[in-house]
Amino acid sequence: MTLTMTPELREAVMAAQGRKAVDVGILDLKGNCSFTDYFLLCTGTSTRHSQAICDAVVEQLRKPSGFFSIT
């Protein structure tokens, strides 16, 4: 099965990788879930590292060219 990455997903993955996320994985939930198409999974080496990864992904997706709005 081939995963076609949307621009939003690509940006999220790149943001996580930019913060040195470990074991980055994507779950394709299209057609199986009503509230999302993908889950981005990754690991940080500490609580602080995991929070930095999360912050980077949210910040990237909130940029003016943003793909969605998080309140």
Order of helices and strands: HEEH
Amino-to-carboxy terminus distance: 34 Å
Q: Provide the number of structural domains.
A: 1
Radius of gyration, taken over Cα atoms and rounded to an integer in Å: 12 Å
Overall geometric form: globular
CATH topology: Beta Polymerase, domain 2
Comma- or semicolon-separated keywords:
two-stranded antiparallel ribbon; globular; 2 strands; Beta Polymerase, domain 2; alpha+beta; 71 residues
Structure overview:
With 71 residues, the chain is of the alpha+beta class. It has a single domain (7-62), classed as 2-Layer Sandwich (Beta Polymerase, domain 2). 39% of the residues lie in helices and 18% in strands. It has helices spanning 7-18, 47-62, and strands at 22-28, 38-43. α1 (7-18) packs antiparallel against α2 (47-62). The model has no long low-confidence stretch (mean pLDDT 88).
